[in-house]
Amino acid sequence: MTVLGKLATALSRRDEIPNQELALEIVLSNDRRAVKQLVKNLQHKDRNIQSDCIKVLYEVGKRQPALIAPYFREFGELLDSKNNRLVWGAMTALHSITTLVPERVHALLGMILAVADSGSVISRDHAVGILVQLGTLKQYADECLPLVVEQLLACPANQFPMYAEMSLGLVNDKTRGVLQKAISSKLDCLEKESQRKRVAKVLQRLSTLPAN
Fold this sequence. Notes:
Shape: elongated
Order of helices and strands: HHHHHHHHHHHH
Number of strands: 0
Structural class: mainly alpha
Helix content: 55-70%
């Protein structure tokens, strides 16, 4: 059976299990040819097949990012797609490969931030993840810290605890005070006790974590 024949759409399935199983099969067999076929069919005329392909690709990326890292350009091209499933799927894929090809992902930062501002919650989640990963690298640290802070201050309350937790990856002697100030500034705006507790834990960790 061809790779496309194993997709959920080809099997007349409405769940994601076939796509997840295919991703695992590709990872276990290190099947680069299958990955190439999936990337090629991101442009398929059938939007369901497009969606299945990006799903399999980012599931592969979660497990073995090196298999999809060569296709950073193709993922970048999807960021202005009219198919929102492809957009946030591409953001998921890019997040998984940022540490492998940081310079390539950094080159897409303008588009990534544009998607974060206008796209889905999932897209914004992955944009913040990408910013944090790039921000751990010396060459991008000064650029990414204020961008992470901007996302912290602008995000909805229900996303704020997670973004605050993610920002812990940027802690060093230079950034600690900036992050503490940004996170503390929104603490009183959180209505749910569970949110306040999560953020309080982040602030506590900020004060005790050793510098990266």
